[in-house]
Each structure stands twice: as C-alpha cells, then as structure tokens.
Amino acid sequence: MAGRFGGLHISLPGLGTILLRPPAGTTRTPTPTTSNLPPIYQDGPAVADVSGQQSKWNGLSSSNGNGNGGNNNGSASNAGSDSNEDSIINTTTATPHHQQFNEMAIVKPSYPSIHMNMEDYMSETERSNQVGDYSQLRTFFLTCFHSYASICATFKRVPDNGGDNAHDPELRMDFLNGVYDSLSSMPNAVHKTALRSIVHALLEEGRKLYSKDDVRALFVLLQCPLFSSPSAYSVYSHLLRQILGLSNSDHHLFVHWLKILEPNRFRNIVRHLLQFISIRQFPAGERGLPAPTRSRWWIPTAVRILALLNASNNNTSSTAPLISYTEFYNSTLDHIDLMKEYLTWQSPDQPGQFSYCQYPFILSIAAKRFILTKDSEQQMILTARRSLVSKMSRNQPPRLELFFLNIHVRRSHLVLDSLNEISIKQRDLKKKLRVSFVGEPGLDMGGLTKEWFQLLIREIFQPDYGMFIYYPNARCYWFSTSNETNLKEYNLIGVLMGLAVYNSIILDLHFPSICYRKLLSPPVVPANHSARVGVVRNFNLDDLAQFMPEVVFGLKELLAYEGNVEEDMGLTFQVSFGEYNEVVTVPLMENAHRVPVTNANRNEFVRLYLDWILNKGIYEKFRAFYLGFHSVCASNALIMLRPEEVEILVCGSPKLDLRELQKNTEYDGYKAGDRIIKDFWDVLFELPPEMQKRFLRFVTGTDRVPVGGMAEMSFKITRLRDRPAFLPSAHTCFNQLVLPDYPDRETLEQKLFIALSNAEGFGLE
Which are the catalytic amino acids? Predict the structure, then answer.
C-alpha cells in the first residue's frame, strides 16, 4: 500500500516491510494499465548507481564497493541485505538524474558486466551445498535480479543486442533453467535474498534498456520457482501486473516466447497461476497477504496472464500443444457461484465487469456442464410456463404432459415416427424429454429415453440409410457426399445430439473431432439466415487423417514428391470418391479436367481436395445437422466450449475406471465386505475391456462415462434373495443392478456372462 509520504510498502513474510519512496519534490503518475484495475505506483530513484569490481567464482573474492551489495540507494536492497553480499558487477558511473532525461533518446544503455556461465554456477552451487555456506550465491542472486538490466546482462546471450525475434528470446535458456532448478532446493535465506532483489527490479524507475529487454526480463521472472509459495504472492502479483501492462505487440512477442519453453516448465507457470487464483479466491487467512478487499485486482490480473499462456498453448499449428487444455482447468472454481458468473458475463448492464466465463479455458468441463444444464433448465421452465399460460388463457385445464417433450414411437417404424414427432413438436424441444414405445407398458424414468437414443442412432447409421460412411481403419463415420439423402434425417441427428446435451444423455456416436469444430462454427446461429454455417476455414491434413488416413498418406506423398508431378502422376483437378461401391467424380474448380496437377499448384490441389471433403461436398447436409443441433442447444453457454468438450458432453469419455465406480457404489441388502460382493468385483475387474463396456451399458444404458468420470456416477447393487437360478437384472433408469445371492463365484461368473451377452430392451420399469 502507499506510504504516508508517498512510495510503496511491500510486506513479505519473513522479509519485513520494504518502502521505496521517490526523492522529495518529485511527482508521480500512475503507470498506464490496459484494464480498469487499480494502477501500480512504482517508487524509487530513476537510476541506480551501481559500482564494484568484477570477480570470479573461486571463492568469489570480490571487493566490497559500498557494503550494500552494489546498490547506492539502499532503500530496496539494504532493507534486508547482509554486509557480506558483495557486488560482482562492474559499470561506469550513471549519468546525473536531470542529464539522463535530456539525453535518454541518444544515450546507449549501459549494462553491468556479469561474467557467469553454467559450469561456474553449478560448481559454486555444489560447493555451497557441501559446506553449507550460501553467502556467495546470495550475492549472485542479489545482483542478478537487482534490475531488468542485470537480469538481461546475466541471461542474454549477447547483452548489448536488442531486438524482437519472435522465435527466439535470445536468452541462455540452459543457464536460466539450471539457476532456477537449483534455486528451488536452496535454503530459505537464499530465497529471501532473491525476492528482495526481484522487488527492487520490479519497482525500479527510469529504466534504460535495449529494445524489448523489459519483455525479456519479465519473461525470465515469470519462470521463477519462488512464486509457487504464497509467501511470495505480494511480489508475484506486481510481476503479473507489469506483464499485463505491456503493449499488445509485446504481448504477442511474449506469447511466441512462451512456446519455446519445455512442457514441464510451461506447466509449472500454469500451476503457479492456478494456485495463486485458488488461494486468492478461497482465502484461508494466509499470513502476510493483504485482505481480499485490498487485492481485488489480483485474480483478474492472474487470469489475463493465464490467457496469454493459453493463447501460446493453442497457437501451435505446426506442433502439438505444450500441455493438454485440461491442465488449464481450475477445479476449485467448480465450487463458486457459477450461475452468478454466467449472468455477470451475459448482463449488458455490467460491461467490463470481470467474470471467469470471459476466460472459459479456466473452467472445467464439469463447471461448463453445470452452467449449460442450469441454463437449459431455465429455458425448459420458461417454455413450460408459456405452454401453461397459453392453456389457461384459452380456459383449458392444464395437463402434466404440458411440461414434457413427449415422444411416442413404434419400434417397427422408429426413424419415421421419431421424425414425425420431432417435426410436429418443434416448440416443445426445450422441455424435459420423455419417451414411450407404443404397445409397451413402461414409465420413463430415464431408461426408455436412453434406449430410444441408442436404437435410433444405431438404425440411422446403418449403411442401408446411406447417410454416413463408416471408415473401419479409423472406426468413425463421416457424412456421405451423395445427393440422394433426405436433409430432414440429418436435421434429426442434429436434434438428437442437442436433446442429448440438453437432457444429460450420453450418445454412442463416432464422429471425428472436426465435426465438433464445425458444430461451433459459429457457436451461435447467425441472425442472417443466408450466412454460411458449419464451415471450417483453418483445416489441414491432420483433420482428414482422423477418418481417411490412407488418403492423407497419398496426399503427403504427392506434396513430398521430388520428380515431375505432372508427367509422372498424370493428375488433374478432377477427383473421384468411392462410396457404397460407387465412384463419384467431382471437379475441384472450373474446367478441372483440363487443369493438370503440377509441382507449382499441388498445394492448391490438396487445399481444394480437403475443402471439398470437409466443407463443400457436405455443406447442405451439415447445415441441416448444424441447425438441428442448435435448434435445441441455442445457448450462449456454447461459446465457452471447445470442440473437444462438446464431444465429451455428447458422447462422454471412453475411459473406464471401475475401481472409481466401486468406491461410489451403494448396497441394498448387501455389505461391501460380503463374499459375493468381493467375488462380483473380482470377476468384473478380470473381464476384458469390451465386456466391461457391456456391463456399463447393461446397468446404465451406455458404455460411455459421463462428464466428471465414474466418481460422479451413482450405482447401486440390490440383493435378490432365494433366486439362485435367476440372471442379474438392471434398472437403467436408476443405474441399479439386481444381483441374486449366488452360492459361489463360478455361478456368479456364469450368470453374469449370460446376462451381459443377451441384454437389450426393457421389461417393466
């Protein structure tokens, strides 16, 4: 906080309070910021007069220039410096204060001379660890982090060069990594010294640096492992604020430099930020940290810096991301008022108000599902209320059916009846779904709905329908390019996917991930009905390889061919596709059959080929599919979702963890320690993966794991007494297994295998 006479107090646990104050008579203005956060006030002299002599590492026998570690102002470093922390830098005397400002535009920056390499540093570290004397290392850290100039002098490959090479920060990264790796395991006294020096660097004014060296210094400091400790959060918050205060062009540079980090080091920065956000979001009275009311800007600042790392992680088109997108999730935020965050984000009355929903990468899939579900429920209630008001206004008695989307179908005409029901009841799509099969007694508590989805999707994806092509090597489907298919059926599949998300049903669908990218292109249906939807612009060969790997192999061979493509291959811009034993010929451009593929235009040929398969050749069908999905899931919450997350919401996760299910199981008539229960789990764990999926489908209606994993599933085993000849049965509505009390493990294994191999359809539910 600001001192009584100006300046800035920084309170660090174990370090005391440091006050940096400007000279008397000077005036300060807040540092400009890019948001509505409170500004940082930087205090201290404009120029530090640092003098001393260069030393070597054998003993670090350096002269003690002024006894304060080479800092002539003393206010930042002397507050906690020891007298034996000598300077190892050598510079000329700084220009007078008034003269510096007059000549700033023409005076070349003067950096200290810090001669240190990895070998010397590691040798001194080893010596310090052996004798337990870290005074020389404390001197090094006090000097190294004393200013942005000293940071660059220590870690830049050529300190006197500037520049903004986006692909290389021009730092000695091996040396930097070695310093930080060793710093983590050093005594607390060394950590305190390093933090004191970092404080001075952050609050230094009047810096004279080579081009982009301020960005380099911040890039170096962000990787510091000391910021994993809450005791350093007061310093960390100001570092984050200075990074946030950089210009847009510097942010772009920062994002590019983050890409060159090793995955583990990138991951550590992300973890530091997530922990910082969690501790500030849920304060537990940490000593030395300001009250939450005095540090409201901490969380927005940290989240925005995290956004830079997320952009860097996503902006790696040529290589895989450094870490998985799920590592940006902060699961502690699952416990905040998510709907309040969502409404704040959606409210036009609060422009600029911070909300986590503005930065959805930080919200887990469970949090996003909660928001989407609650938003869906509110839309369901609103739709049902309108129906009720409409009935009452016509003096008609309300009926329970008003509150549901009631689907009545015959098993023998499943697709036709479903199409008719959905087309007739378009206005009811946002009501709670309830399914009944004609001629079958059953009350839908969720199980009949699951079966309807499964049977309908299984039938539509049959080759006889000709809607989708199955690619056995990739084990997934893609849209047929045939022109003979009814678009209403594609719309029906989209509606089914939307209803599944809306009603928290897991579907057994096998589309490549680009399908879900297309579903979010754009995530909200445009008001202009003629606008193109479901079109992916930034496609590449990897997208096609998800379902046509053999074709991609051939295209890569074409691109890499070193001979004469036109003469040796004889290709034109007219291509042929095989579907259902029929060959379809397609022109990729006007007069395609007359345009040969050459070495010069082969990249254009590949681009047009991809565009046809992924976009143009299936546009009308995918548009019907897209509109069907969004006719149900018309929610702004979709904007927060990644394509991978939409896939998980629709299809669940294929990863089974039956031990998690065991931990979450309830027993009715049995106990967890009973012999038959132990035998049951042993038999289940020993089943092959395919049979384990059959078991999950048997008791829940699907072999996919819902969002949040099996730990969130409810599962119950009920005892059936005196019926050893009966097979196990299930109530999929309630995820309940009815298990007879079998006399031995052999009988249990035999009966369970028969049940899993022959289960389909419903009796009375």
Answer: 733
